[in-house]
Specification:
Helix content is 53%, strand content 0%. The protein is an all-alpha fold and 175 residues long.
Length: 175
């Protein structure tokens, strides 16, 4: 959250475009991450008093191998560098929830993701331990729907953030 605030402010300055390009790449990454439930939560237990590192220590059956990777790949993109695949997936995403779209506070975005981690990630069939867990079809379907909604919302919020920070209007951006 802190770095999103820093990069947002940096884009609103008159700094050279080369510096802003660095800030923009990080901003894209961090806005996406803060919308992911496991980027905003870690489950602390007696066995893991420092947490499970956002699900990275929770093992799951299947190609993802661990819960964090499962959620990162919930829409099926994986590590692909194929731009056309990303465009195709993007075209199938649901419209962002209009009641959430206007919220431009990164602390709220993180709080939403944290709440989703509690309500939809760390739930059965994921148990209290570190697994391995066999994720059910219902869990997988629910995860995909949540991930699609969060990606859509992140993209729309990012667009709003960039327009605001760069002082964009219908024809140009001031910064």
């Amino acid at each position: 959250m802190q770095k999103i605030t820093v990069f947002r402010a940096a884009l609103a300055t008159g700094e050279p475009d080369l510096l802003k390009s660095y800030d923009t790449v990080w901003l894209l990454h961090l806005v996406g991450d803060v919308h992911g439930p496991l980027h905003c939560a870690t489950r602390v237990s007696q066995a893991k008093p420092h947490g499970d590192f956002g699900g990275n220590l929770v093992l799951v059956q299947g190609p993802a191998g661990e819960l964090h990777a499962f959620w990162d790949d919930a829409v099926g993109m994986g590590g692909t560098a194929n731009f056309q695949t990303a465009v195709k997936v993007g075209q199938t995403l649901p419209a962002p929830d209009p009641s959430l779209l206007a919220d431009d506070q990164e602390s709220d975005w993180a709080a939403e993701s944290f709440a989703l981690a509690k309500s939809s990630v760390y739930v059965a069939p994921v148990g209290a331990g570190l697994g391995p867990y066999d994720l059910s079809g219902t869990y997988t379907t629910n995860s995909m729907q949540i991930a699609e909604a969060r990606i859509s919302l992140a993209g729309a919020r990012l667009a709003n953030l960039l327009k605001e920070s760069l002082k964009c209007n219908a024809t140009s951006c001031a910064n």
